[in-house]
């Protein structure tokens, strides 16, 4: 069985288009566009980045991503 962390790491790697270990706003938007318009709105993307970027560097590292999505906190109630 796959753990929530494993699933979050797999998603992170899918979104990390350049493989540098960091997600930029552009990479998140690109992943969202791949959903064919069924993904998050621009304001939801910005809110996700703000809530995940705990060190304030403008990018989301693996640990920041796992901390936010690895426990299901990103899902709407």
Automatic annotation (TrEMBL):
Keyword Repeat tagged: yes
Pfam families in the cross-refs: EF-hand_7
Family matches, as SMART domains: EFh
Gene3D superfamilies: EF-hand (1.10.238.10)
Domain of life: Bacteria
A GO MF label: calcium ion binding
Keywords recorded for this protein, A-Z: Calcium, Repeat
Source organism phylogeny: Bacteria, Bacillati, Actinomycetota, Actinomycetes, Streptosporangiales
SUPFAM superfamilies: EF-hand (SSF47473)
Species in which this protein is naturally found: Nonomuraea phyllanthi
Protein name: EF-hand domain-containing protein
């Amino acid at each position: 069985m796959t753990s929530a962390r494993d699933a979050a790491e797999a998603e992170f790697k899918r979104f990390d288009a350049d493989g540098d270990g960091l997600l930029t706003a552009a990479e998140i938007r690109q992943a969202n566009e791949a959903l064919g318009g069924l993904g998050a709105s621009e304001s939801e993307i910005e809110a996700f980045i703000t809530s995940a970027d705990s060190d304030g560097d403008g990018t989301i590292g693996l640990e920041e991503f796992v901390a936010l999505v690895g426990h299901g906190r990103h899902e709407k109630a």
